[in-house]
Amino acid sequence: MAEEIVVDRGLEGVNVGETVLSNVEGEAGRLTFRGYDIDDLAPKATYEEVVYLLFYGKLPNQTELSALEATLAGKRALPESTIAVLRAIPHDAWPMDVLRTAISSLAHVIPHKASGQHPSDVDAALGLVAKTSTIVATWDRLRRGLEPVAPHAKLSTAANFLYMMTGSEPSAEFAKALDLYYVLLADHSYNASTFSARVTASTNADLYCAITAAVATLTGELHGGAPSQVQDTLDQLGAPEKAEQFVRDLLKAKGRLMGMGHREYKVRDPRAKHLEETAKQLNKGGGSYALARALEDAWNKVLKEEKPTARIYANVDFYTAPALGALGIANDEYTCMFACSRIAGWSAHVLEQYTNNRLIRPKATYTGPAVHPFEPISERGREPAGSART
Ligand code: COA
Question: Which residue, by CA, sits nearest to atom 28 of ligand 1?
């Protein structure tokens, strides 16, 4: 009897590797970084502490933290060649396209081996952590016709982003809010972009190649591209009292509500409550926050009536939109902000992949035509491709 081949489309539930970096417990709704619960890290740790945790395996003491902060501050400036690349891009380019190109260009000024690879170690990874925010802020200014602002060595990664974007030091409230966002998004096990980075690293391609692949993978709305569309939805909604009808119409049309649902979490995403609280404070309980809150309530109510067994709850992207919007960050840059934080997790995963590498190369079940003879061009029919045989 022929062996039954099981095809796992989407690799749902398939275990493809190991990691010590983070753990997603989808049924419990828990996310941990090296054993620390995100619920503890979010209010108590800074992004720099989390970066240290991911790269060095423990939380830093004050001396270690100060040294890391100084290292990151020293690596923030972009090479002239990357600034030149950014200046050459049309101002209406999609920000994630710009980020992908600029990240890739960082490698151009770094010496490489005869085989092409650039150094791919913690030092290189910290350079990427430091520079990703600079790229996004620099592009934000250039496309508005403004000159870039040089990084501020005394500010945190998050505060410095806001400083480079606006040209003035952010309030403590804004700096803390963005830092919290950076902490929450720093890693998330084998999500699509991280897996993409690990696949690329598994070929022995270097860190810059792997991170460029990760940025590209993050772009899609089924992953990091959702928050901009959440914002569009909130703008379209316009008033909280329209939320219930909006959800009914959306489900009737078999549409998807962005910011809802997750492959792993079958309860509300544990990051959502922290972002909701931040969005609420920044919007003083109104504005986009009030719209999002009404939409989530309506979603939970209508879904319970119409799809009682569905387990589709708010994910990290839902309250990202009202939080980042209140910080003055442009709607089309939300996914870039995701990358500014996740660069830490991606890089740590790439380094982890190198330590115990095996080429990642799955199989696929072939469903095309059976083996058949090659036809000389004079004997080929006029049928459209694919219609000739099965
Ligand atoms: N709105 C409406 N229906 C949704 C939904 C959403 N946000 N998310 C999932 N569903 C429904 C699907 O339509 C499907 O219904 P069906 O079985 O009747 O066809 C079912 O739930 C399973 O969806 P599927 O896409 O197979 O599940 P998944 O595990 O791949 O879903 C996501 C994960 C994130 C891709 C999905 O929830 C989604 O598209 N969410 C919206 C985009 C988003 O927020 N992305 C950011 C993720 S962090």
Answer: 263
